[in-house]
């Protein structure tokens, strides 16, 4: 146990481990003053627990595969560690010990970018309290935080619920009741008619995956607009969908009438031909006029990034689904993970849209400002076609007029990640492919309805 005189929680953990039968030693980082919390818990520490200050000239030799609990510093840091504290952290990182951090690895900032080369404990496991810290959810911090979990410590739940925040962590509890059960006398018209514009020569598979995901997502009717080259493939592989072929053979050149449709999705395998760009421009304008929910993905996002003037044509509440590189083309390169979140908030507020920034803990930006971080999914989902499936699922949920744009986005991202988790239980992460994720969309949505 490595602790500091400014904190008492490390001493509490040491006492509890001792009472549970573990052999515990406590080393304290030298300090000139003591908090009341530290003093009280130092007095409560059983005499049998060895407790001493660290000698910076001769730091303790740790046994092979020792387990160390890091309780040196917490969430209040405003500057990088230096001096003795930095030396101890560097030594611990080189020790080969298995490190558990309390609340935050010592030296890690909770809500700000980490300065380059600053001393931070590289924990294998981090145990937080009540709610996850933002730092847990960002890619740069993964090597410091390791695996993490959050434990309840009986904080006032009413206070937590009523505290204004601009970041949310999405789990099944937050989504409870948002996906309504299907009425007894529902029919295919109840759940909307969706239009998917997808596919080009060599990329019809993306249209197939998105179409299948849309159908598994519960849409009532689906029409796929695709070039002639995709007709036989889609009719054979997705017989439940209607196929509306474009006059062109290899890519989409014309926009069909939007009147029959409750929602429109565009992008999977679309290609970036000049004629297809004009279709996207017409779609943005007509979707605005008709107030039709719109999902924009893949090549449609790349066209927006190349022709940024089209961003001003986005209809209110449009839903964009970029991965980080696609998002960068829409905005600018991010300096760090926190800057990327600033860009996400600014982008969604400027264009009055929703934006699904894909990755581990996928972040959903909203027109109102809050960002929602998703709790489901696994590294096996980093595979070609996974995003096409997400687009199809979001299209199905947006076509369901019973759902708000926010609920459709939250449910779609969560269910997509959960489908990936269910699939990985059978395939493993390395063997997971996009079709596996699509296959488990139904069970994932069923779990949400049952909440």
From TrEMBL:
InterPro entries: CARKD, Nnr, Ribokinase-like, YjeF_N_dom, YjeF_N_dom_sf. Gene3D superfamilies: 3.40.1190.20, YjeF N-terminal domain. Its EC number is 4.2.1.136. (6S)-NADPHX binds at residues 206, 269, 323, 388. Its cofactor is K(+); Mg(2+). Binds 1 potassium ion per subunit. Keywords: ATP-binding, Isomerase, Lyase, Metal-binding, Multifunctional enzyme, NAD, NADP, Nucleotide-binding, Potassium. It comes from the Bacteria. SUPFAM superfamilies: Ribokinase-like (SSF53613), YjeF N-terminal domain-like (SSF64153). AMP binds at residues 358-362, 387. Pfam families: Carb_kinase, YjeF_N. Residues 171-448 form the YjeF C-terminal domain. The keyword NAD applies. The keyword NADP applies. Residues 1-161 form the YjeF N-terminal domain. It catalyses: (6R)-NADHX = (6S)-NADHX; (6S)-NADHX + ADP = AMP + phosphate + NADH + H(+); (6S)-NADPHX + ADP = AMP + phosphate + NADPH + H(+); (6R)-NADPHX = (6S)-NADPHX. In the N-terminal section; belongs to the NnrE/AIBP family. In the C-terminal section; belongs to the NnrD/CARKD family. Catalyzes the dehydration of the S-form of NAD(P)HX at the expense of ADP, which is converted to AMP. Together with NAD(P)HX epimerase, which catalyzes the epimerization of the S- and R-forms, the enzyme allows the repair of both epimers of NAD(P)HX, a damaged form of NAD(P)H that is a result of enzymatic or heat-dependent hydration. NCBIfam families: yjeF_cterm (TIGR00196). Homotetramer. This is ADP-dependent (S)-NAD(P)H-hydrate dehydratase. It comes from Hymenobacter volaticus.
């Amino acid at each position: 146990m490595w602790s500091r005189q400014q904190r008492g929680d490390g001493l509490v953990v040491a006492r509890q481990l001792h009472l549970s039968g573990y052999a515990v030693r406590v080393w304290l980082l030298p300090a000139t003053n003591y908090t009341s919390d530290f003093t009280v818990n130092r007095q409560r520490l059983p005499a049998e627990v060895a407790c001493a200050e660290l000698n910076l000239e001769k730091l303790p030799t740790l046994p092979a595969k020792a387990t160390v609990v890091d309780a040196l510093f917490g969430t209040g840091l405003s500057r990088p560690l230096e001096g003795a504290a930095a030396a101890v952290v560097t030594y611990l990182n080189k020790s080969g010990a298995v490190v558990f951090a309390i609340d935050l690895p010592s030296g890690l900032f909770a809500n700000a970018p980490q300065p380059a080369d600053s001393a931070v404990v590289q924990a294998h496991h981090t145990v937080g309290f009540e709610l996850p810290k933002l730092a847990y959810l960002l890619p740069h911090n993964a090597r410091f935080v390791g695996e993490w979990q959050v434990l309840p410590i009986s904080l006032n739940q009413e206070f937590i619920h009523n505290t204004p925040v601009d970041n949310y962590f999405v789990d099944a509890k937050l989504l409870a009741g948002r996906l309504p059960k299907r009425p007894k006398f529902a029919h295919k018209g109840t759940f909307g008619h969706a239009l998917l514009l997808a596919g080009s020569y060599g990329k019809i598979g993306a249209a197939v995956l998105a179409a299948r995901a849309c159908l598994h997502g519960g849409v009532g009717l689906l029409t796929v607009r695709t070039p002639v080259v995709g007709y036989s493939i889609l009719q054979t592989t997705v017989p439940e969908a209607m196929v509306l072929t474009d006059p062109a053979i290899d890519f989409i050149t014309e926009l069909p009438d939007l009147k029959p449709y409750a929602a429109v999705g565009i992008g999977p395998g679309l290609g970036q031909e000049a004629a297809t760009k004009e279709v996207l421009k017409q779609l943005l304008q007509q979707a605005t006029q008709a107030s039709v929910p719109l999902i924009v993905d893949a090549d449609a996002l790349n066209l927006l990034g190349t022709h940024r003037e089209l961003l001003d044509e986005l209809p209110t509440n449009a839903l964009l689904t970029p991965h980080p590189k696609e998002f960068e083309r829409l905005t600018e390169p991010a300096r760090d993970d926190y800057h990327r979140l600033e860009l996400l908030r600014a982008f969604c507020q400027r264009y009055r849209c929703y934006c699904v920034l894909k990755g581990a803990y996928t972040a959903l930006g909203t027109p109102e400002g809050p960002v929602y971080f998703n709790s489901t999914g696994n590294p096996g989902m980093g595979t070609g076609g996974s995003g096409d499936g997400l687009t199809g699922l979001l299209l199905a949920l947006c076509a369901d007029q019973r759902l708000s744009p926010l609920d459709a986005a939250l449910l779609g991202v969560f269910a997509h990640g959960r489908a990936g988790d269910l699939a990985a239980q059978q395939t493993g992460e390395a063997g997971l492919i996009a079709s596996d994720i699509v296959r488990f969309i139904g069970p994932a949505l069923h779990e949400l309805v049952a909440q």
